[in-house]
């Protein structure tokens, strides 16, 4: 097996990568969904606890209100004042028949039972020691508690609701209704609460009032040892995973207090039951991830055979074409998909390239011939013409018209020589290999100042402070940048021109650069001209002769050495006061 084969590399890299990615994403996804499901389960269980607490409070509140409505009846008060047993017993019977009370009785202000129904054996007993009777008598307000049921045979627990009886603004006794905890549990079971079989109601002391375990209810089991019960006694609401020492198992408990009674409701179910949806979802996701990983491996293998193989054929065809051999046998031209389209397009392109190869070669040779002719033969003719014209120009017998004609001919010949020189420079710039060596731009600036052509009829002042050690990576062509900018400042100005050249240090992209500015007080450049000034055959608004290659050459040279050039007004906002060209060149730190 070829390890360096693109198909094998694809299989060795892509398959493990995809499978690893799927496994990593799958594992994180599993943990994420487990966490989401866990929080959903906690929220749902807490909602059940709150629903059970609200349902229980509503039941006790409605029972209390019903008992108060009976206690507020004038006939009951009148019957109690007159000790009219039939009337009082009638209201007690009504209270039993129309509510969930199992027994009702009335005491006087000393706590002695005066009337009771249906358990009349309570009549005459002193209940002043009962917490709910004592609190009602003391505070003249409703009191609720859980005690051993006095109205049933097995003497089990019951919820006692005691309300005061007032007549003409004075309390004359208490009325108490007892609800068997089984009745309360059955009523709670009828509510639309999920997992009601795990609901536990306990009083403020941590004794069980309602629980699926009937024995716990009968004994009023003390569960105050449980963390959830302790949190309820502090008035807290929440969800916790706890160890239940009574049942000796781990449980998920959601708890919330009942505001009116101080009791609490807990929904407590085994961890295995509570988190069953998490385990089911986890198993499903694991199977799904494994299936996806297997599919990824199969798809990657098929991809390697159906996609990579024809691409390799196209690659081989490229190599065959490059060495002038038959490339058709490697191209999957017969395929009907996009790869076949690519192969057919490649074949068409290859045929055109082969057809154009000879034409391009001929054109290249012809262009080089023209460049040699222009650079050598025509340039020699220009130099001869310029020498003869300069000799004629020195003839003192020439009149003004003849001298003007010779000056024009000299300017045209010099322009032709400059154009040839620019073409040579462009050829050097565009060569694929341009060797860069350390050069001193300070020396180049000084040389350009010295060589600058200063017309006799123009006053030229050039200000520059020499600064040694300005080393950059470039070549001899870089001198053309400064000579061109200085020459333009002289050429495109009036009778007097002042040129200020300055070199400053700057930082571009955290790299040390030299910023060289060439400012003059010449004609200036309008804003609409500035953006296109450095492109081919573009000049300013002057009528100077030339083909507009100078600044294009400047820009091209600077780009090849990693620099840049820009132009702005010498005085910001007023282009008529002259121009400032700014050249940025990267400093050669290692050259020092």
Any chance you could write out the topology, listing elements then pairs?
Layout: H1 6-71, H2 74-81, H3 85-97, E1 103-107, E2 113-117, H4 131-139, E3 143-148, E4 157-167, E5 170-180, H5 181-189, E6 199-202, E7 208-210, H6 214-219, H7 227-233, E8 238-244, E9 249-257, E10 264-270, H8 271-274, H9 276-322, H10 338-393, H11 400-429, E11 437-440, H12 441-451, E12 459-464, E13 471-474, H13 478-491, E14 496-508, E15 511-520, H14 550-560, E16 564-571, E17 574-586
Helix pairs in contact: 1-9, 2-3, 9-10, 10-11, 11-14, 12-13, 13-14
How would you sum up this structure in a few lines?
With 592 residues, the chain is of the alpha+beta class. Among the domains are: 332-431; 434-591, Heat Shock Protein 90, CATH 3.30.565.
Describe the structure.
The chain has 592 residues and is α+β, with helices and mostly antiparallel strands. Among the domains are: 332-431; 434-591, Histidine kinase-like ATPase, C-terminal domain (Heat Shock Protein 90, 2-Layer Sandwich). 49% of the residues lie in helices and 21% in strands. It has 14 helices and 17 strands. The chain has helices at 6-71, 74-81, 85-97, 131-139, 181-189, 214-219, 227-233, 271-274, 276-322, 338-393, 400-429, 441-451, 478-491, 550-560, and strands at residues 103-107, 113-117, 143-148, 157-167, 170-180, 199-202, 208-210, 238-244, 249-257, 264-270, 437-440, 459-464, 471-474, 496-508, 511-520, 564-571, 574-586. It has a five-stranded antiparallel sheet with strand order 2-1-5-4-3, with helices on both faces. A five-stranded antiparallel sheet has the order 7-6-10-9-8. A five-stranded mixed sheet has the order 12-14-15-17-16. A hairpin with an 8-residue loop joins β3 (143-148) and β4 (157-167). α1 packs antiparallel against α9, α12 (441-451) runs parallel beside α13 and α13 runs antiparallel to α14. The longest helix is centred in the N-terminal third of the chain and has 66 residues, at 6-71.
């Amino acid at each position: 097996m070829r390890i360096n084969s693109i198909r094998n590399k694809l299989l060795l890299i892509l398959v493990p990568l995809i499978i690893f990615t799927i496994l990593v994403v799958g594992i994180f996804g599993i943990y994420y969904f487990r966490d989401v499901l866990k929080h959903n389960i906690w929220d749902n269980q807490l909602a059940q606890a709150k629903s059970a607490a609200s349902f229980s409070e509503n039941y006790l509140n409605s029972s209390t209100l019903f008992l108060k409505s009976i206690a507020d009846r004038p006939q009951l008060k009148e019957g109690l004042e007159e000790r009219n047993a039939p009337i009082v017993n009638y209201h007690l019977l009504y209270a039993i028949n129309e509510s969930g009370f199992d027994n009702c009785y009335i005491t006087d202000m000393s706590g002695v039972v005066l009337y009771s129904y249906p358990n009349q054996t309570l009549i005459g007993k002193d209940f002043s020691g009962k917490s709910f009777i004592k609190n009602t008598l003391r505070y003249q307000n409703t009191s609720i508690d859980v005690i051993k049921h006095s109205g049933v045979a097995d003497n089990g627990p019951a919820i006692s609701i005691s309300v005061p009886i007032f007549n003409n603004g004075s309390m004359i006794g208490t009325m108490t209704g007892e609800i068997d905890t089984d009745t309360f549990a059955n009523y709670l079971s009828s509510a639309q609460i999920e997992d009601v079989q795990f609901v536990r109601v306990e009083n403020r002391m941590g004794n069980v009032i309602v629980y699926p375990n009937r024995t716990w209810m009968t004994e009023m089991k003390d569960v105050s040892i449980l963390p959830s019960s302790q949190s309820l006694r502090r008035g807290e609401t929440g969800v916790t995973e706890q160890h239940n020492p009574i049942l000796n198992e781990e449980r998920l408990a959601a708890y919330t207090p009942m505001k009116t009674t101080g009791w609490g409701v807990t929904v407590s179910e085994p961890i295995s039951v509570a988190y069953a949806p998490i385990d089911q979802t986890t198993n499903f996701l694991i199977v799904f991830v494994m299936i996806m990983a297997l599919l990824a491996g199969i798809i990657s293998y098929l991809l390697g055979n159906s996609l990579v193989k024809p691409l390799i054929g196209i690659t081989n065809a490229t190599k065959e074409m490059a060495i002038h051999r038959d490339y058709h046998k490697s191209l999957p031209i017969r395929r009907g998909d996009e790869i076949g389209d690519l192969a057919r397009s490649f074949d068409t392109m290859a045929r055109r390239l082969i057809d154009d190869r000879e034409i391009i070669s001929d054109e290249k040779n012809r262009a080089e011939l023209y460049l040699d002719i222009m650079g050598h033969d025509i340039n020699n003719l220009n130099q001869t013409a310029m020498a003869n014209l300069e000799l004629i120009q020195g003839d003192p017998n020439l009149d003004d018209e003849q001298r003007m004609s010779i000056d024009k001919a000299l300017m045209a010949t010099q322009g032709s020589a400059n154009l040839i020189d620019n073409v040579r420079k462009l050829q050097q710039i565009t060569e694929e290999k341009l060797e860069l060596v350390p050069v001193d731009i300070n020396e180049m600036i000084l040389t350009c100042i010295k060589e600058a052509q200063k017309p006799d009829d123009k006053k030229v002042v050039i200000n520059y402070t020499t600064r040694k050690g300005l080393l950059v990576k470039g070549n001899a062509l870089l001198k053309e940048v400064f000579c061109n900018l200085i020459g333009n400042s002289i050429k495109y100005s009036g009778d007097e021109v002042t040129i200020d050249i300055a070199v400053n240090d700057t930082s571009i992209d955290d790299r040390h650069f030299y910023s060289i500015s060439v400012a003059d007080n010449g004609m200036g450049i309008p804003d609409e001209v500035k953006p296109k000034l450095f492109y081919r055959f573009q000049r300013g608004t002057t009528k100077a002769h030339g083909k507009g290659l100078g600044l294009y050459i400047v820009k091209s040279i600077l780009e090849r050495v990693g620099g840049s050039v820009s132009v702005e007004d010498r005085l910001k906002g007023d282009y008529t006061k002259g121009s400032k060209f700014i050249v940025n060149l990267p400093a050669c730190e290692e050259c020092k």
